[in-house]
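[Solved] Which block belongs to which protein?

Original post:
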Amino acid sequence: MLYYWVDIPGMLIKHKEQRVGIFVDVQNLYYSAKNLYQAKVNFGTLLTHAVAGRKLIRAVAYVIRGPQSVDDNFFKALEHQGFEIKAKDLQVFAGGTKKGDWDVGLVIDAIKMSRSLDVIILMSGDGDYIPAVEYLQYNGVQVEVASFGETTSSKLKEAADDFIDISKNTKKFLIKD
């Protein structure tokens, strides 16, 4: 027996047989939570909420490894909550500029895995993902976005088939320091 959840405006259908992949831009959510609420994201709770009883195939968290050993505990906590970790070292350039992002890697992985998924959930508010969202949708994948409403690109919200606004339930999705 299949159960369907229907969101009438976009006719979004969620059912327990959908195969779901989650791709998390950890830095994006981490800094949004820190700057907006002086809190941390409860990634485990967000994962469970976003999956919504469907078949989780893979959950990948893209992280930047800094010089602090605190990162290791955080990465282990993510793994314990069901995430596969993909890490890159923070790049520090001669002038002191720092760079670390996974945008291209996350998109490539989402596209590669999309053949075996019905739904991709992007956890980021970065508008740079809009072309990837549109490409995935064009190829038959439902794309949902979970992020903070205040820091999420309005065009990304519009492009997504569904938007989970973390800010609407901070007690559930955030951990205060």
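(Second protein starts here: sequence line, then its structure tokens.)
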Amino acid sequence: MTLATPPFIPGAGKPLRADARRNRERIIKAARAVFADQGIDAQIDDVAKRAKVGVGTVYRHFPTKEALLDALVRERFEEIAGYASEALQREDAWEGFCELIWRAAERNAIDRAFCEVVAGTDQSAVVEETGLARSTEELMDRAKGQGKMRADATSLDVEIMMCGAGSVMRTMLTASDVWRRYLTLMLDGLRAS
């Protein structure tokens, strides 16, 4: 039986106690829901209340609201990197690429804060660190090699496409499915003719 290594608090240098680990997990889960619903203007008090911990407990784990948001964004990119790894298993790289884009967009559509953070900050380092950039480029190279993606398509096109979809998601809150149409049009633009 393999025991999981307890999570570390950045800069702390030692594993968390079991109760502290449980509190951290509750905070992350609560923050995910609160920020997804309210966006980056959500308050730490709301996170603490939903997690059923004191505000001080939240700040012990995440010294600033930005640190908490950073943890949530990294977690989301790790999740999307997992989608990319799964997409790489598809024989048809274009289908794998489209599957990756749709899964990521579906996930992003229900996470208002993620869309806001990505729109306002450079997340390229996290995209690299999680392996998402490498996997996406590999999928694109394979799709081009199979003649199913435009030869001039670049990873910057994907970044712009996802930011565009995120922008539609953020601004069209009352017509929540409009982004699907625009994402379909953008993917069609990357398809080989």
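Accepted answer:
You had them paired correctly. Confirming on the second one: Residues 61 and 151 are 46 Å apart (CA to CA).
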